[in-house]
Amino acid sequence: QKEVEQNSGPLSVPEGAIASLNCTYSDRGSQSFFWYRQYSGKSPELIMSIYSNGDKEDGRFTAQLNKASQYVSLLIRDSQPSDSATYLCAVQEYGNKLVFGAGTILRVKS
Amino acid sequence: DAMVIQNPRYQVTQFGKPVTLSCSQTLNHNVMYWYQQKSSQAPKLLFHYYDKDFNNEADTPDNFQSRRPNTSFCFLDIRSPGLGDAAMYLCATSRSPGASFGEQYFGPGTRLTVT
Question: Which of A30, A58, A98, B16 could disulfide-link to A90, CB 3.0 to 4.6 Å?
Fold first, then answer.
């Protein structure tokens, strides 16, 4: 069973700070990586996808991928209280499926 | 707006009483997924359809069945719910082959309670 590991948190950051969320995965052959945000009691929402080593920026979000270290991260700049949620890292398996991590709880304090 | 719709949003059923959850989509995506998510856990894939091709996960209990009568609709049937089946059930869709499979669009979920 391929695994995706995340620190469960909670990660607490002050409003305006950078939140850094990390994820490691076990399958060295994985090629596609995703970050989903899930508010309490709601369903996951895709916020970032990354397929190549390096950084990918989208607004206040930056995804970072290092395939050699089997490591993917999500940076949230200028964190807002509305960013408080669980962030799920997901890795695409061979075929049509995703393997999700259990998520990191982020709390942004105003 | 194109979307994924799940009904009902909340479902209460009795132990052992069959229940059906539904999912519909207006995205015209080829692939539809059913996940089970319990509190503070990762979504767990139960099965998925690629068009009409059904793919069951090895560890999905026989108690769980699914139907996809057409592109837009997919159903999850729980034949004899147990207390351990209480969870959020999530339907998701994605487009055709390649990395797009990871770009999944989720419905709002159905919260199932078993009494």
Answer: A98
Reply yes or no: is the peptide bond before residue B8 cis, omega within 30 of 0. Answer: yes
* Amino acid residing at B97: P
Angstrom distance (rounded) from CA B76 to CA B65:
6
Q: Which of A42, A45, A96 sits opposite B101 (nearest CB)?
A: A96
User: What Cα–Cα distance (Å) separates residue A28 from each residue in A4, A50, A68?
Assistant: 12, 15, 8
B112 touches chain A (CB under 8 A): no
Instruction: For residue range B27-67, list pLDDT tens digits in order.
Output: 999 999 999 999 999 999 999 999 999 999 999 999 999 99
A41 pLDDT higher than 90:
yes
B107 contact residues in A (CB cutoff 8 A) = 43
Enumerate residues 34 to 93 of chain A having a beta carbon within 8 A of any beta carbon in chain B: 34, 42-46, 49, 51, 88, 90, 92
Residues of chain B in contact with residue A30, where contact means CB-CB under 8 angstroms, are: none
Structure tokens at B71: 């592109």
